[in-house]
Amino acid sequence: MTLLLFLFGLLTFPVEMATVTIEVTTTSTQAAPLRLAVFNSPKDFADDRQMTGVVKPLDGSVSFDLDLPAAGNYVFAAFQDLNDNGKLDKNFLGIPTEPYGFTETPPTKWRAPEFAEVASNIPNSGPATATINLKEWKDY
C-alpha cells in the first residue's frame, strides 16, 4: 500500500526540470573542443564523477542549453582540449596547461577548489544562465 501511495504521489506531483543556458568563452585563439562536466554534489565533485558531460566545438565562444534533473547547486567545470586527447593536460607540477574555468571563479589558483567555492545555484523558476570564461592558469 505504501508503494502504491508513493507512486501516486510521483504522478500527481511531477518533478520539475531546471534549464540552464551555458555560455562559454575562451582566451585561446586556437579552435578546439570544449569539454564540460556537471557535478551535483560535493562528493561527486571530489571523486571526479560527473553527472553529465558535453563536448562542443569551441572557437571563441559557444552557448547551449542543459536540462538538469532539478533546481539546486551544481558545479559547471570546463576546459578547452587543445590537443583533443579527452583530458585536461597538466605539467609536472600539476598545473593545467590548457584553458579551463568554472561558472564561479575559484578563490585561489594554488589548489583545486572545493564544491561550495565554485558551485552555482540554479533556481526552478524559469531558465537560468551561467557563464564560464576559460583562461590559462597564469591568468587567474
Question: Which features would summarize this protein structure in a list?
Answer:
3 helices, 140 residues, five-stranded antiparallel β-sheet, 14% helix, mainly beta, disordered N terminus, globular
Secondary structure: elements and pairs:
Blueprint: H1 2-12, E1 18-26, E2 32-39, H2 42-46, E3 52-58, E4 61-68, E5 72-80, E6 100-102, H3 115-118, E7 120-122, E8 128-134
Parallel strand pairs: 1-8
Antiparallel strand pairs: 1-4, 2-3, 2-5, 5-6, 5-7
How would you explain this protein's 3D organization?
The protein is mainly beta and 140 residues long. Helices cover 14% and strands 39% of the residues. The strands form 2 sheets. Strands 2, 3, 5, 6 and 7 form a 5-stranded antiparallel beta sheet that branches. A 3-stranded mixed beta sheet has the order 4-1-8, with no helix packed on it. The chain is globular, with a radius of gyration of 17 Å. Mean pLDDT is 88; it is low at 1-13.
In a nutshell, what does this entry contain?
By secondary structure, the chain is mainly beta. It has three helices and eight strands. The longest helix is centred in the first third of the chain and has 11 residues, at 2-12.
